[in-house]
Design a protein that fits this description.
Low-confidence stretches of chain B: none
Strand content of chain B: under 5%
Radius of gyration of chain B: 20 Å
Largest sheet of chain B: none
Largest interface: A-B, 46 and 50 residues
Distance between the termini of chain B: 77 Å
Radius of gyration of chain A: 30 Å
Low-confidence stretches of chain A: none
CATH topology of the largest domain in chain A: Maltoporin, Chain A
CATH superfamily of the largest domain in chain A: TonB-dependent receptor, beta-barrel domain
Number of strands of chain A: 39
Mean pLDDT of chain B: 88
Number of strands of chain B: 0
Helix content of chain A: under 10%
Number of helices of chain B: 9
Distance between the termini of chain A: 74 Å
Order of helices and strands of chain B: HHHHHHHHH
Number of helices of chain A: 5
Helix content of chain B: over 70%
Shape of chain A: globular
Oligomer: heterodimer
Chain lengths: 712, 214
Amino acid sequence: MKIFFTVLIFAIIVFSVGAQTKISGKITDENKNPLPGANIYIKDSYDGVSSEANGSFSFSTDVEGEAVLIASFVGYLTFTQKINLDGKDKQIDIVLKEDAAELGAVVISAGSFEASDEKKSVILRPLDVLTTGSDGDVYSALETLPGTQQVGETNGLFVRGGSASETKTIIDEMTVQNPFYSSVPDIPSRGRFSPMLFKGTVFSTGGYSAQYGQALSSVLVLKTQDLPEKTISAINIMPLGLGGAHTQRWENSSLSFEGGYYNLSPYFQIQKQRPDWDKAPESFEGSMNYRLKTSKTGILKAFSSYSTGSLSLFIPNLDNIPQKDFFYQKSNNFFANSNYRDILGDDWTLFAGYSIGIDNEDDKINSDVANKKDLFHTGKLTITKNIFSNTFLTFGGETQFLDHSSSYNNLKGSFKETYLAGYLETDVFFTNNLAGRIGVRAERSRLLDKTNIAPRLSFAYRLGKFDQLNFAYGKFYQTPDPDFLLYSRNFEFENAQHYILNYQYIGENRTFRVEFYYKKYDDLAKGTVFTYPYFNLPPVPFGSNGSGYAKGIDIFWRDQETFEHTDYWISYSYLDTKRDYKNYPTLAAPPFSTPHTFSIVAKRWVQSITTLFGATYTFATGRPYFNPNNPEFLGDRGKNYNNLSLNASHLLSIFGNFTVLFVSIDNVLGFSNIYGYNYSSDGKVKAPIFPTSLRSVFLGLFISIGETNPYN
Amino acid sequence: MRLIVSFLLFVLFIGSSFAQDKYVTGMQSTLAKMESCKTPNDYLKVANGFERIAAAEKDKWLPYYWGALNCVLACYSDSSNTTKDLYLDRADKYINKADSLKPDNSEIFTLKGMIAQARMQVDPMNRWQKYGAEANNCFTKAMQADTLNPRPEYLIGVGLYYTPAQFGGGPQAAKPVLEKSLAKFDLFVPKDELMPHWGKEQVEQYLKMISESK
């Protein structure tokens, strides 16, 4: 019986309701702001409560003895504290620390514009890139951002006083040697890569990471899509040509093919052209994309694209009017990039990639023949390690091999360059409000037989919930353009130093950003190259004694809130730049620069007719042009540039397939823009450089097959 | 002695069923609180309640499931886009835990699809392509995992209802899918009172709206 009682007492103790403990207090962040809705509870019991609007909480628990009190809230590190539940009321004030890995932490962003779906505080979305600009070209969309110059007659992005070759395009971490279709003088071509390929874009106008090099002014970092969501086909019908694509999706892999044929001849029949075309541009292009998910975190990407095109036209010979020179061009471009990315263990990230580019361009000018060939290999390996909480170390190496050859009739030149680079960079969150990226890049050029070391620094300091201050400094090196290396190897690396100070506010629907910069150029390559236009200037010997500077202010404002269904952004760039390079006799503002550039982009979605309307207005002051009759080198200024373009994307359904009808009109108001002037050798004849047509119209029907509801 | 042993066994039995009861009653009382939820904060409080149960019952997927659902409901009852994404981040966290405890479950796939739908609605212009496809993938998997689950079709139907006709949506496109869902609801019996059982009234409501608008 004694045992029985013992058991009974034991049972009573087990099931008796013990004394309750009441726990109350207040929960705040480190700045004493109350955190409403936090979850406060006793570990392994159900006892707990959510905090009130003023951060206060109070609950009772039946648990007795040693226990653990937990407080958790999204965006904050979970709080735990041992607590002795002895039936006496407890008053506990809890302070939660922010989790830097979560939203709201300071972001390193000096100098860059980022478009991404995945991150929250970015200035643009990938769709913005797609629906801005008149022709679905990544580059023309970026020209609506501050820091870029409007240079309508030449390919490329001209950033903050830099020439086009100072901006490098990087696809999945690999540099693309020639991202544009070949072009003829004064008629630019488009970017070769469709914006649809990319899920993320970082456009850096300066002060970028040590992971990138060989660009004095700017890098455009494009990230390709991961596994596509589903199997889908597309047909694109335009007056300019036909295109098609198919994507097949399997559980862990996908394969896409895309191809197109474009011929501008029918369009040129309708739209009056200023150039005297013999054969309108015609091109074929094809690309293939393979994705394999190798594990939960690993992805293998392989991408290749090929295009071939030809055109011919008559160009007025200013030395012998009315004679015209016949110009014919045929080009092939091939680019392939395969890369693998994975997370190893808990804190290692690995990236390995290889890419190859082959570009071939044949030109005929009357009876003269010119050819240009590039073979470009790149290999890159980058490793990132989370060394301790909030500190990441990135290191890696890159090698580039360029085999360049060009010929003009019997004159032939070629060179082979091997370039090696290593980089080390650390991202540190000193506090939740202060982050820094400190890096260094070392580069070696075999051709120049030179080595350089480039430090890079970027800091971000958060002022409030939505705004921060950024600062960046960096030194950037670039091997002189191939045109120079054909003549001489006796060059230094060209280099530039960037100083950037930026304030930005990224609110829910409004963004404001102002950036001040100063850029100092040194060791720019000098020398007279026969392809370069300033023919009748005195010859300049080859050397690295060029220099220059650029300084200015970039302002960006975006507002998606004030007007319903309307999104607009305004960019303004002020630029003061001068340089002495190539065959310049003196320091001068280059033809690809102008003091004031302003643009406004507005978009409005009209639900009732499922159409997105867009308008872009751009104004730029006149750019310098070379006038042999003016004793002041580059002392003349062209006309101000004005352009209003409109576009509309109408969404509709054709035989149950999701379809976009896209129309855009460039220069709706018919401003007569002049990009600059060409002169005859004796300086007596002056011919303006016009856009290829007064207005241009782009029309397209893009049908997605399989983009419908599959459950009907 | 026999008496003692049997009593001891009885105590143990009571004890274990008491623990079981604690889970069931804890869940039931938290589920009951959902009825009176109106504001995002109400739903988040309930989600906190489920999180507390989940933290104590380490092998149970249902507390996480219901926690995630309440975060989605908080999202639907809010108007600020920034906070909506925060709620859905939380929903993701919960549903992924549920998924790791109970893989290939039709209800979990359904809720993942619902989260994707909610993500899409925060910014349809930019997100429909990604999250629309993701939602459909989830619903397809949900229907494969349990052909009798009425909820995937309910959500597909609602998605279609609000999709413009140009995208292959609209009330008339939604109607047959919602009818299919309703037919499955009529046959659906949840295994116990803690299992997901929501949706039938809403389907009936949508069907009523469609027939009235005709």
